[in-house]
Amino acid sequence: MATTFIIFFTFLCFFQKSLSAKQPHILFIVADDLGWNDVGFRNPDMITPNIDKLANEGVIFDSAYVLPVCSPSRSAFMSGIYPFKTGLQHYVIGAYQNVCLPLNLTILPQQMKKSGYATHMIGKWHLGFCNWNCTPTYRGFDSYLGYYNAAEDYYKHNVAGFYDLHDNETTAWNFNGKYSTYFFTERAQEIITNHNAEQPLFLYLPFQNVHEPIEVPEKYANMYPHVMNRGRKYFSGMVTILDEAIGNITQTLKDKGMYEDTLILFTADNGAELLYYGNNWPLRGGKHSLWEGGTRGTSFMSGAGLQKKGITYSGLIHAVDWMPTLIAAAGGEQVPGIDGINQWDSIRLNEPSKRTEFIYNLDDFYIPTQGHAAMRDGDWKLFLGYPGLMDGWYKPMNDTEDTPLYNLIYSEGDYPVQLFNIADDPNEYHEISLQYPHIVANITAKINQYRQWLVPAKYPPSDPKAKQVAEKNGGAWYPGFC
User: Fold this and answer.
1) Residues 70, 130, 134, 482: which is the catalytic one?
2) What range does the record give for the signal peptide (predicted)?
3) pLDDT digits (tens, 9 = 90+) for 97-139
4) Catalytic residue among 126, 157, 195, 211
5) What percentage of the chain's residues is helix, strand, coil (to nearest 5)?
6) pLDDT at residue 217, rounded to an integer
7) Does the annotation count 13 as an active-site position?
8) 217-223: long-range contacts (C-beta < 8 A, 24 or more apart)?
9) Which CATH superfamily is domain 23-355+458-472 in?
10) pLDDT the model gives residue 11
11) Of the residues 41, 150, 463, 474, which has the maximum number of CB atoms within 10 A of its CB?
């Protein structure tokens, strides 16, 4: 009897170890320009039941940071490296610019493939496309349906004068006239349905919603009869159709029997674009700024591997951390020499963050479109120079047509200096640099150390070859101009 028990106990331990070692499927969702206050679990006016359920059953991040605009954040997600070290720290990659995420970097999907994952991407790339080697299927993704640029029409898929929608390496004209969220969702469902569940799946879903232009089928806007401001009404509908898409995709995971084995990471790429009806209340500022409203992203994790659930996690996390964290969750080999920190154990066990400091951004370009320099060191946040385009505190524009104004008080260089204690003053009301000159000096010295690794911003003028290539491709953006 004792021998039988020992054999049974040994088998049970082996079985449990095998289960714990199983690689999770990973769904990485990015919501474009989604604000801190644009989800139901923070704002009851927003209709986001699927997002709310995932967030409340998982780990909501209270201090997960991103960059102030799109391309820098996405470069951080994919590479685990601060954008100021890759030359992508300034604004976003334009359609006519011959720039892309440096090709010498090992990025997240490539590392996932090394770990045995099937890798698929659906949605917005925005990391350059001037050369085929810059594009998703050449950088580790088995398949790709999406667009290379930003701010395109949701139905016509035009941006900057040309069509931008691609199915792997082919221009996807067949989706012209169809709302992107619908067919992005359908493709995700197809991938899940046809996937061999014995192989781990990595699905990267950077949705178009809720970036401008403000467009959504009427029925979603009509779900907000209490919102008098037309722009906010349609923006809110764009959030709800995104929520519906996530609900449909998670239901497909359940139908396939993969849901319990799936880890979901959801994050915004920057704060809300205030001029296009997004909202970051009660945080200060918005997209294009280094204020908390521009960089403190709506984010959560849900699903497989999390030991502590239904909590809010306050530890510091930066966009560069998601690559090593997801690799760790996948049981993969880490990429050496990156800025990201593996936070997987900290998150899944609700332990203190391994991060104590980070750079919000270091922008050396002369055109003032976003903040110049800022750093977080423990509870302290130091600005050097211009904080960014948007300033102030704005409630949702439900009952007013008022539009936030640009912050036009631009200054060059590292002045003025501004210091805040984010633990005591998370909404950045009280500037206290004169009270703590030693803190200012210490963090300034750290920023100057980081500047030793700064790569000058790669922000070239428009390349006429880009237009020539698009015209030869029948009026659609296409690689081949660098």
Assistant:
1) 70
2) 1-20
3) 999 999 999 999 999 999 999 999 999 999 999 999 999 999 9
4) 126
5) 35, 15, 50
6) 98
7) no
8) 217/179, 217/241, 223/47
9) Alkaline Phosphatase, subunit A (3.40.720.10)
10) 42
11) 150
